[in-house]
Give the backbone structure.
Amino acid sequence: MVEVDILQLKITELEAKNLSLRELLAQISADRLKKYKSEFLIANLSQNLVENIQTGIIVHGADTKILFANPAAAKFLGMMQSELAGKDSSDPNWNFYHGDGRLMPLEDFPVNRILREKQVLTNYAMGLYRPETNDFVWALINAYPELDKTGIITRIIVTFIDITDLKQTEIALRESEKRYTSLASELEATRNFLQNVIDHLPVAVFVKDGRNEHFGEMLLWNRTSEKMFGITAQDAIGKTIYDHLPKEQADYICQKDLEVFASGLLEDIPEELIDSHSLGSIILHTVKIPLYDCNDHPQYLLCFAEDITERKKAEKALRESEERFRQMAENIHEIFWMIDADFTRFIYVNPAYEKISGCSCESLYEHPQSFINAIHEEDRVKVLTIYQQYLQTGWSLEYRLVQPNGEVKWLFERAVPIRNLSGEIQSIVGIGQDITDRKSSEEQLIYQAFHDSLTGLPNRTLFTDRLEMVLKKSKRIAEHRFAILFIDLDRFKVINDSLGHLVGDRLLIKISQILEKSVRSFDTVARLGGDEFTILLDDIDNSHEAIEVAERIHARLQSEIEIDGNKILTSASIGIVFGSHDYETASELLRDADIAMYRAKDQGRACYEIFDHTMYDLLLSRLQLENELRKAITHEEFLVYYEPIVCLKTMNLCGFEALIRWQHPTRGLVAAGDFIPICEETGMVVALGKWVLQTACHQIQLWLSAYPSLKLTINVNFSGKQLKDPQIISTIDEILQTTGISPTCLNLEITETILIENTEIAVKVFQQLRARHIQLSLDDFGTGFSSLSYLQRFPVNIIKIDRSFISQIHSGDRNIEIVKAIIALAHAMNIKVIAEGIEQREQITQLQAWDCDFAQGYYFARSLSAEAASDLLERAAQSAVFS
């Protein structure tokens, strides 16, 4: 039983504990329920607050995506709440703007700034452009980050309020301020403008006070008033006329002012005499306008005054002038006339008409048409047409009058219409000047402008004009043929320089006469200048006609022309070009005729050449080569090669001739003969020759230092252009000094042709060179003319027999005798001889037998580079390499 009791007791205790536990649980549940209800109430209130508050709230994740946005935020952003969830707030498509209106870059977006700076963003104004509604909204932003325990941002909460209305009000206020400022500025500008206009009006403008207590006091006084009355605005404003004018005059003006207010009408005073203290008496044209207040009481008197003193003086002067004009018109040499607008009655014509026209003034008054009848019949229609066309504006023209005795007078006439106040023409006034003498002078000037003053032939201008006309005619008429002859006298410069310019001019006149006799009367012979002539053969049947003219000219030039006892033989190079439809301008025809003429010169002169297009192509090629040469000089593309010169007595090497070569970038090594002629014509040879001389002298000095046992000289070719260079002697001196070469080692070679064309200059230069002990060689001896006379005149040390003689010394007695004679003559004059073009051993043997001094040619060696020449010298220093 005890166990049962114990068990029952335990059960009772357990039940009691269970009841206590249930009560405790119930109490706990009640507390929790109360707490949960409170929390739910708070959550519900918070939810309602977030959903209904006007403040926008957006919660972003650390990845900048939107976790939550309340309705106010969605409305501001112009989107649905559901659309915002998960949207990236760093999307560059958001059109955010700074508070000052600048577009906000992505890095300045609020969320990006907080992620970057981890700082709270407070009261930051920014704007948003909403493209869906095409409008701007503005908000004031507050944002802060939520951090975890490690300091890492977990969320970013952004709140903002819509300040769009405030911003728009602010903008509107600024615009209003701008408009107000602009309006105030415009009003100030308008006031200044009006004041400026008033100040610059050509009439005096002043305003007087019309009120009783201040009557007559000056309120406005413009600059013209200051100048007119001699009173400054400072002295005038606030004062009356009594302060500046005599009392009697001031009383009079004051009374008139009262009368104006009394009448209420504008008063116009055509003449008003004012006596001022400072300026004396002046005459004014015054206008006074009374102005009243709203009660019709006098308020202001607006006055305008114009100083007409000078006008009145001018009117008087005009009357006097009219009298003087009448007297002048009666005595001038020009015709002065006045006729009515219908040209039916002369109102006035002065006596000069009688002298110029040969008719009386009375006849003109009686028969006005006689003036028209006196106009030259070739000019009459032109004059009448101009009268009709320019009646309203006036005219200027030239025409001829024929006197009753048949004498023709040129008249320059100017006329203008005279109109009445209605603008209608009431008369015509004109003046006619006798320009007969001037016309004669003009015709002479025109002739001189289009003709050569020496020969009287048409000049380049007239020739070109006629050629253009013929070219146009050939374009219209396909069968029309014509030709151009371009003529240049051969060696005219030699004749001009040797016989004098006067003889040269007379020769040109003779040539022009020969040319005119060689063509038809309607062909054109012209002198372009110097010794260049052109002929235009118009309307020819075939090309043979032009060739016949060229041959006729050559035939006539074969006869001697005698001038002042001088019998002159000359010839001409003629270029012929035939007109074709390919030509567009006269200059193209002249160009091609000129090209053909130069081809004739290249063919030996005293002949003609007909132009073909290969000539033009060659000219273009030549121009290209010229341009390449200029670049070559700049880029130093040239080399000097050295041709050995051998002493025939010892067969030792005794020197070199320096020969230039062009290392062309694409064509390789170019010989001098292919480019030196172009250098000569263009003048480039001066710079090129200096370079060759400098290089050759430097090289020979190196060799002389390396091989002192060898007595070496260097021969350098000398051009005509170098000969004419005024600096040539100083250039040679400078090169000799810088290279250190002895002048006796330098031998300058020059051709006979250069001596002939530059005789006087050559004599002077050669004398200076010989004074410096520089050796001089006459190159290509025997190929020119007058060689013996030049040997006597010039201080030549060496002559070089041309290769054309040397190559033939084995073929006949004549060549042998010529070469022997040259050597003997040279030795007789103490001149050394070099034979050029040695190619065979037999030639050396023959020349040695004739006692020739030196030789050069391919037998010994071709021209060598500096390196190859150095190798040759190395061998020559040890033995006679050519023995």
User: Anything to note?
Assistant: The longest helix spans residues 2-52. The two ends are 169 Å apart (CA to CA).
